[in-house]
Design goal:
The protein is an alpha+beta fold. The protein contains 2 helices and 5 strands, in the order αβββαββ. The structure holds zinc ion (ZN). Zinc ion binds next to helix 1.
């Protein structure tokens, strides 16, 4: 069984190119796409290619995804004329606002964004 692909998951379908999305960046481990309903002038989703539900579900060896998410966020922030400030948000679980149950981070940038705390 291929645990990397869940046929009912929209992000797995995007990664498999079965559903189209605006792809911003891609590495062996991750893909970054534009959010179709942006909440900031720049709103990307950073998604591990392997189907993992949320942070609570990560196996020990899968925590490398958290570092990879940080690495690609840094690259996105530094790819323009000047470094972008950004917010990185992971909703992990339904009660935290997660609605697509394939782990992903929101990369938000472009305006002065409110702090959460
Ligand atoms: Zn998935």
């Amino acid at each position: 069984m291929n645990t990397h692909f869940d046929p009912s998951c929209i992000f797995c379908k995007i990664i498999a190119r079965q559903v189209s999305a605006r792809i911003i960046a891609e590495t062996d481990a991750l893909i970054a796409i534009e959010d179709s309903a942006p909440k900031a002038p720049t709103h990307y989703l950073i998604i591990p290619k392997e189907h993992v539900r949320d942070i609570q579900s990560l196996m020990n060896e899968q925590f490398d995804y958290m570092a990879e998410i940080g690495r690609i966020a840094q690259q996105l922030a530094l790819c323009g004329d000047k470094p972008q400030d950004f917010k990185l948000v992971i909703n992990s679980g339904f009660n935290a606002g997660q609605r697509v149950f394939h782990l992903h981070a929101h990369y938000l940038s472009g305006d002065q964004l409110p702090g959460l705390v």
